[in-house]
Design a protein that fits this description.
alpha+beta; magnesium; 39 strands; single chain; biotin
C-alpha cells in the first residue's frame, strides 16, 4: 500500500480524498494555485505545493507541474479527483512513465472510453445501442449547422473531453447551433485543453440514469447499482439519488450487466460510470463512460456501504476486489443536493466573494465511514473563506440517507433549512422548491423537468410553503423575546422602563413598495423555557425554542412538531427588519406596535434609480468580449458582451433595439455585480 499520495485537484473532492487517505494511514500532498493558497484542502493535507497562477490552464491543468510536485514530495501515487486532468489519457500515461501510480483507470481505458467520440465508436462495435449522431470532430460552426440539419433538430453539441456540464449545448435551430458550437468549443479549450466537439441527436423527455462500476487488475468488475441524475439545469446535475424511482429491477440488472460488459471490453480498472439515457418505456441507450470518480458518488456509498475512494486506492495498489456482485447491497435511499454559489433569482448567475457566514447542518455521517441513515456534508470551504471566480461554483454537497425515499426527502428538506450561507448567494431556495414539487415527490420527472416547470426562470413565489404564517409567528416570537431582554436591562429611567406588549403588527415587505400587515397577539410567554403562544391570522402557534437571539439557525418545536429555520435582524435597507427563512421561502418583515405600524404606513416609498438605459454586469466575472461600440445600433437579441465566470461563458444580449451611447468597461476588466458596461441613448 502507498505511504503518500498527491491529490491533483482542489476544493471539495480534494478534501474528500484526504479523508479516506487519513483513514487508511496514507500521508497526503495537496497542490494549489495562487487563488487557493488559503483553501481548506491545503490546510487539511500533510504537505502542499504551489502550482502557479489562478487560471487552471496555468496551474491545475499543467501535467508537468503535477508530476514535478509528486517527485518533489516523494508521492508514490496521484489521485486526480474529477474534472481537470482526471480523464486525460496523456497525463495518466505520463504518470506511468514517470513511475507514479495513477489512481484511476489505465491510460488505454481512458483513451477508449474517456474520449466521448472513441467510446461511442467502441460501443457501436460492441453492438451497444447508441443514439444517432456525428462521431467525428466538427471543425467549424458552418459544418456544425449542416450536420445538425442532417441529424434533425434538436441536437446536442458536446465537447469530446467534456464533463460536469462544461462544453455542452443543446440547439433547436441553425442560429443556436452556430453560436452553441463556438461557445462549446471555447469552454472545452479553457476547461480541458481540448477543443474537439461532436454532435448527437437530443432525445426529448429522457431520464439520465448512470451505473457505477468498479474493476480491479485481476479482471473482476462489478456494478454498484444506479444513480438517478435526471434533475438537471443546463445539463448540469442539481439533485442525484440512488436508487432510481423509475426503473424496475429487471432494467437495473440489464443496465448493470451491459455496463460491466463494456468495462471488461476495455480492461477497466478503478471506479467508473456508464451513463445511459432511458426512455419512458425503460428502453436505454449508452451515452458515454466517465473514467473517473463522479461528483455524486456519495449516494452510491450510502446505499452500498462502500468507500469508493478507498476502493480506487486499493485497486491502484494492485489489490483485488474483496466482494462479488452478489455481495453488493442496496440499502435505503440516498439523495444529494449540489449547493452552488449562484443566484437562483437572477437566472442562476455565478456569485463569488467571501463566505461571511458558513454553517452547514450538523453531520451525522462523515466521509470515508460506513454510517447510515443520516446527514453528510462534503465541502471544500469554510467560514471566512473566498469563493473564487476561476473555478466551478460548488460550495458543498449535502447528502442524506433514509430508510426510504419519503424519509430521505424529508431529511433533505430539514437539512436545507439549517444550511446557513451568507456573503454569496446560493441555490438552496431552488433546491427546496424542487424537493417540495409534487412531481418530484412522486418520481414523475425527466431531464426536462426544470425547463418545463421553470421556463420563465425561478422567482420567489415559485417556492411553495405549507404555512407562510409560521414565518410571521416566528418573527413575532423572536421580537417578543428581544423585548423581554430589553426590559431586563438595568439603569432604565424610572417611569420610562421598557414595557412588554402583547399585541404586535407584522409588516411584510412584498417588494416594490408593497406591504401587507398581520395583527399578532403573544401570550403565555415563558422566557426561561423559551415558550410562547402566538395568535396570527386566526391560527395558534405554540412555539418552543432555546435558540439565542444572535443565533442565525433557530431550532425548536411548533405545535409539538420540530422545526429548523433561519432568522436575522437588520437588512441593508431596514435595520429593524427581520429576515426569516424556512422551507426555501424567505420573508422580510418588521414587527411593530400597532401605533408604529399605523405611522409606518404613512411613510413615502423611495423608488430605486432607473437603470433601463444601462447594461449592468449581472455577476462578478471577466469581461472577455465587447460586441458593441459607441454609436452602434443593436437589435433585440443581438450579442452585447461576454462575461466569463466559473469556467462558463455568459452572453449578454440586447432586450430591445438600442443605440450605444457610451462604453463604460473594457475587455479584460474584472467586473463586479451591477457594474455598468454600456449606456444606451
Amino acid at each position: 500500500m502507498f505511504t503518500k499520495i498527491l491529490i491533483a485537484n482542489r476544493g471539495e473532492i480534494a478534501c474528500r480524498v484526504i479523508a479516506t487517505a487519513r483513514k487508511m494511514g496514507i500521508a497526503t500532498v495537496a497542490v494549489y494555485s495562487e487563488a487557493d493558497k488559503d483553501a481548506r484542502h491545503v490546510d487539511l493535507a500533510d504537505e502542499a505545493v504551489l502550482l502557479g497562477p489562478a487560471p487552471s490552464r496555468e496551474s491545475y491543468l499543467v501535467a508537468d507541474k503535477i508530476i514535478a510536485a509528486c517527485k518533489q514530495t516523494g508521492a508514490q501515487a496521484v489521485h486526480p479527483g474529477y474534472g481537470f486532468l482526471s480523464e486525460n489519457e496523456d497525463f495518466a500515461r505520463r504518470c506511468e512513465e514517470e513511475g507514479i501510480v495513477f489512481i484511476g483507470p489505465k491510460h488505454y481505458s481512458i483513451a477508449a472510453m474517456g474520449d466521448k467520440i472513441a467510446s461511442k465508436k467502441l460501443a457501436n462495435e460492441a453492438r451497444v445501442s447508441t443514439i444517432p449522431g456525428h462521431n467525428e470532430p466538427i471543425l467549424s460552426p458552418e459544418e456544425a449547422v449542416e450536420i445538425a440539419k442532417r441529424i434533425g433538430y434538436p441536437v446536442m453539441i458536446k465537447a469530446s473531453a467534456g464533463g460536469g456540464g462544461k462544453g455542452l449545448r443543446v440547439a433547436f435551430n441553425d442560429k443556436e447551433c452556430f453560436e452553441g458550437f463556438t461557445s462549446c468549443r471555447n469552454e472545452a479549450r479553457n476547461s480541458f485543453g481540448d477543443d474537439r466537439v461532436f454532435m448527437e441527436k437530443f432525445v426529448e423527455q429522457p431520464r439520465h440514469i448512470e451505473i457505477q462500476v468498479l474493476g480491479d487488475s485481476q479482471g473482476n468488475v462489478v456494478y454498484l447499482h444506479e444513480r438517478e441524475c435526471s434533475i438537471q439545469r443546463r445539463h448540469q446535475k442539481v439533485i442525484e439519488e440512488a436508487p432510481s424511482p423509475f426503473i424496475s429491477d429487471a432494467t437495473r440488472k440489464a443496465m448493470g450487466e451491459q455496463a460491466v460488459a463494456l468495462a471488461k471490453a476495455v480492461k477497466y480498472q478503478s471506479a467508473g460510470t456508464v451513463e445511459f439515457v432511458v426512455g419512458k418505456d425503460q428502453d436505454f441507450y449508452f451515452l458515454e463512460m466517465n473514467t473517473r470518480l463522479q461528483v455524486e458518488h456519495p449516494v452510491t456509498e450510502c446505499i452500498t456501504g462502500l468507500d469508493l475512494v478507498e476502493q480506487m486506492i486499493r485497486v491502484a495498489a494492485g489489490e483485488a476486489l474483496t466482494f462479488t456482485q452478489a455481495d453488493i447491497r442496496k440499502d435505503g435511499w440516498a439523495i444529494e443536493c449540489r449547493i452552488n454559489a449562484e443566484d437562483p433569482f437572477r437566472n442562476f448567475l455565478p456569485s463569488t466573494g467571501r463566505l461571511v457566514r458558513y454553517q452547514p447542518p450538523e453531520a451525522t455521517m462523515v466521509q470515508a465511514e460506513p454510517q447510515r441513515f443520516g446527514v453528510r456534508v462534503d465541502t471544500g470551504v469554510y467560514e471566512g473563506g473566498e469563493i473564487p471566480m476561476f473555478y466551478d461554483s460548488m460550495i458543498a454537497k449535502l447528502i442524506v440517507h433514509g430508510k426510504d425515499r419519503h424519509e430521505a426527502i424529508a431529511k433533505m428538506r430539514e437539512a436545507l433549512n439549517g444550511f446557513v450561507i451568507r456573503g454569496v448567494s446560493s441555490n438552496i431556495p431552488f433546491q427546496a422548491a424542487l424537493l417540495a414539487h409534487p412531481d418530484f415527490g412522486t418520481g414523475n420527472f425527466n431531464t426536462g423537468f426544470i425547463a418545463k416547470h421553470y421556463a420563465d426562470g425561478f422567482k420567489a413565489e415559485d417556492v411553495p410553503h405549507d404555512d407562510p404564517l409560521f414565518l410571521v409567528a416566528l418573527a413575532g416570537f423572536i421580537r417578543r423575546k428581544a423585548r423581554e431582554r430589553e426590559a431586563g436591562i438595568s439603569g432604565q429611567l424610572p417611569g420610562h422602563e421598557v414595557q412588554i406588549e402583547h399585541d404586535y403588527v407584522a409588516v411584510v415587505n412584498l417588494g416594490g413598495g408593497r406591504t401587507e400587515q398581520h395583527a399578532m397577539h403573544i401570550s403565555e410567554f415563558a422566557g426561561a423555557l423559551g415558550e410562547a403562544l402566538v395568535k396570527v391570522g386566526g391560527k395558534d402557534y405554540r412555539l418552543v425554542s432555546r435558540s439565542r437571539l444572535n443565533d442565525v439557525r433557530i431550532t425548536g418545536t411548533v405545535n409539538g412538531q420540530p422545526f429548523t429555520a433561519q432568522a436575522e435582524r437588520g437588512t441593508a435597507k431596514n435595520p429593524l427588519a427581520y429576515r426569516i427563512q424556512h422551507g426555501g421561502r424567505s420573508m422580510e418583515l418588521t414587527v411593530l406596535s400597532p401605533r408604529a405600524a399605523e405611522l409606518q404606513a404613512l411613510m413615502p416609498y423611495k423608488a430605486p434609480p432607473d437603470t433601463s438605459k444601462l447594461l449592468l454586469s449581472p455577476m462578478p466575472g471577466l469581461l472577455v468580449h465587447l460586441a458593441a461600440q459607441v454609436g452602434q445600433t443593436v437589435q433585440a437579441g443581438e450579442r452585447l458582451a461576454v462575461i466569463e465566470a466559473m469556467k462558463m461563458e455568459n452572453i449578454l444580449t440586447a432586450q430591445q433595439d438600442v443605440t450605444v451611447a457610451e462604453v463604460l468597461a473594457k475587455p479584460g476588466e474584472s467586473l463586479s455585480v451591477d457594474q455598468p458596461i454600456l449606456r444606451f441613448a
